Amino acid sequence: MELLDKINNKTAKVGIIGLGYVGLPLALEFTKKGFSVIGFDLDEKKINSIENGKSYFKHIGHQRIAEAFDSGNFNPTTDFSRLTEPDAIIICVPTPLDEHREPDLSYIVNTATTVAKYLRQGQLIVLESTTYPGTTDEILLPMFQKIPVEQYELSGNSVTELEFEPETFKVGKDFYLAFSPEREDPNNPDFNTSTIPKVVGGVTPSCLEVAVALYSNVVVNTVPVSSTRVAEAAKLLENIYRSVNIALVNELKVVFDKMGIDVWEVIKAASTKPFGFHAFYPGPGLGGHCIPIDPFYLTWKAREHDVNTKFIELAGEINTSMPNYVIEKAGEALNRFKKSLNGSKVLILGAAYKKDIDDMRESPTLKLIEILQRKGAQVFYNDPFVPKLPKTRHYSYDMVSTEITAKSLKEYDLVLLSTDHSAFDYKFIQENSRLILDTRNAFGNRGIYSDKIVKA
Question: Best label site of 89, 222, 249, 396, fewest CB within 10 Å?
Fold first, then answer.
């Protein structure tokens, strides 16, 4: 097989669509392993940043970008007509929810439409975007099977237009199609793109063979499965598992609080059991692109089969209710000082969805700001990694990170810890704040205890 030979000798050219949190690290790994990579993205700012050797993510250093681009093997572009050039095309685009909390596949469909326009014989297409089981087979496969009247043949650096009668591309023979779910965890100190095992499912055995061969060049271990549906379902299971267990400890947090029991102490005690227990931790709400969104892809698809996913939906309800619980605790804490949320000055510590990164996707801080402002509070925030709140799909705040000083901390009626960044000076914050609401047990984990610290 010609494509397999090109992959094995690393002469295959790799195209990656979407240079975000998933696509950019993947492009860097393929470049590092000696492959020629074309990175496609509609955002010209990203392209310009890469060409200038600059990273637009905190957890990816400028040097990695500069080395990849200077090697001559990494070519970022906004020109999607160049999709005829790669031998393998990997799709890494967002899969959000719409306003009805149902799957929004517009990014996948629009991307696949463009790929189909330039599809040529012998190419491998892999979808990495998290989605419901059946997406690859039911949506992408029909789009790629039909050859457009206009086809393109690459000759050197020029493209020659050819005419074909409409016919059908045969999957597994004329082109190859697979699904391999992304498993990125930004700023994870123990795992990165190359050291996380890769699940791969192909539409046909030959599709699986070439996809496994491709990823085997850049990841420590590939895990082939029997179909794209299994691969799609595996990703959902991973995140539903986390969502359900986080919902469990979030619910127990509320219950134990009513009983006067510290849930973090309970988790610490339970964690001493060397088997049968895995610790999950409560928080102000779920963040990131995966856990708040992915479970609803399965609940939506399950309805097509007349199945109600009550357990998954209940977990979603509990997790999405956590920001309201935090604000309720904030109101109770302020009441101790004969204050109300209305008119209070509140400083939120941390805007990113988890510690020590600049990723704002689905951050619970955004919801906390919305509720606090709705209740009449004056809201400020500080995050060493997010100097200004970016516009998101649901929020557009005109807010910049405020400086933390001893004087400024004393002016806030409440300091609300939402994201437990390591860069925060917790002892300094405790010494100079009037009242602290800690949603991460950040102070307790550092042995800092005080009557003015309330856990939520």
Answer: 396
